[in-house]
């Protein structure tokens, strides 16, 4: 019976721990838990890729096209055009003449 409780304690969910630390505003601890989770995930992915590469090299297995995940090219020109349009819009904003009218009104009031 004590072995079962020990296993339950050891198998804590790091995601829940990270969220709880964030809710408790213990951000340093939440950051440590997040970094630990990412390290484990990256290590697992790296190990899997090593296995795939060894399988291809030593066993002559053809690489799966789906697993290779070709890097897609992004269409950055459309995004750049949108940013340039926004910059032009910012420069073409009409000036606000109401502040000049307020200054004129204040001068007339003070001169009376």
Report on the structure:
It is a single chain. Helix content is 77%, strand content 0%. The termini are far apart. The protein has one domain. It is mostly helical and 112 residues long. It has helices at residues 2-10, 14-23, 27-59, 65-68, 76-91, 98-111.
Quote the distance from N terminus to C terminus. Answer: 94 Å
Shape: flat
Low-confidence stretches: none
What percent of residues are in strands?
under 5%
Number of strands: 0
SSE ordering: HHHHHH
Structural class based on helices, strands and sheet pairing:
mainly alpha
Number of domains: 1
Mean pLDDT: 75
Q: Over all CA atoms, what is the radius of gyration?
A: 31 Å
The level of helicity is: over 70%
Number of helices: 6
The main β sheet shows up as: none
Label this structure with key terms:
112 residues, mainly alpha
State the gist of this model.
This protein has 112 residues and is mainly alpha-helical.
Secondary structure blueprint with pairings:
Blueprint: H1 2-10, H2 14-23, H3 27-59, H4 65-68, H5 76-91, H6 98-111
Helix pairs in contact: 2-3
């Amino acid at each position: 019976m004590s072995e079962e409780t020990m296993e339950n304690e050891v198998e804590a969910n790091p995601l829940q721990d990270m969220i709880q630390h964030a809710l408790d505003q213990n951000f340093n601890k939440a950051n440590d838990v997040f970094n630990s989770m990412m390290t484990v995930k990256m290590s697992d992915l790296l190990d899997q890729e090593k296995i795939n590469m060894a399988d291809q090299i030593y066993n002559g297995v053809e690489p799966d096209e789906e697993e290779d995940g070709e890097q897609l090219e992004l269409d950055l020109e459309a995004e750049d055009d949108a940013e340039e349009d926004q910059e032009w819009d910012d420069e073409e904003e009409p000036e606000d003449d109401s502040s000049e009218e307020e200054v004129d009104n204040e001068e007339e009031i003070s001169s009376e």
